[in-house]
Amino acid sequence: MTGPARVAAVEGALSFESFFRAEYPRLARALLLLTGAQAEAEDLAQEALARTYERWERVRAMESPQGYVYRTALNLHRKQLRWLGVRSRKLLAGSHEPDPAEAAGARLDVLAAMRALPLAQRQAIVLVEWLQMTAEEAGRTLGIAPESVRGRCHRARKTLKEALSDG
To answer: Of 86, 117, 155, 161, whose CB neighbour count within 10 A is largest?
Structure first.
């Protein structure tokens, strides 16, 4: 880009830069009053100004670019509140992802139950269930008959079911 096009681009960038310097502190303070959280206010202000920058050629020609950026920030905040409302309704209804703490506890329970298995059963169940080997493949890997693999897996499943159903 050379000549007048480059000058116009540089002037547009400088215009946005001066707009940003003037509006960011005011916008962030206003959003702090709205949200009550400094980090959230700064995030919203930055996102609103980034969206304004993407449309700067059109926005700077508006009667009130400040109004545009404030409206954008408020819309972003409303969108965030709607998302939180939907998420909270799902949590209250019970249709949510499992609690990370509960999931971690469940993994620890499974791990403890697996450790409690005899080594032979643990080897067989890992090969067949987790590694998706057939009884024949697992038997070759362990150096035993496929029937023995199936028997070990059966006993391991029964023990795991009993251990995990108690919790």
So the answer is: 117
Q: What is the CA radius of gyration of the chain?
A: 30
What lies within 8 Å, CB to CB, of 64 at 6+ separation is: none
Query: What's the Cα-to-Cα distance from 135 to each of 2, 29, 34, 114, 161, rounded to whole Å?
Result: 72, 66, 63, 19, 20
- Side chain identity at residue 110, one-letter code: V
Query: Does 41 share its domain with 65?
Result: yes
* 3-class state of residue 96 by DSSP: coil
CA pair distance 28, 69, nearest whole angstrom? 11
Q: Which two tokens stand for residue 144?
A: 């035993």
Query: Which residue among 58, 93, 128 closes a domain?
Result: 93
Q: What's the predicted TM-score (pTM) here?
A: 0.49
* Dihedral in degrees, nearest 10, Cα atoms 57, 60, 63, 68: 90
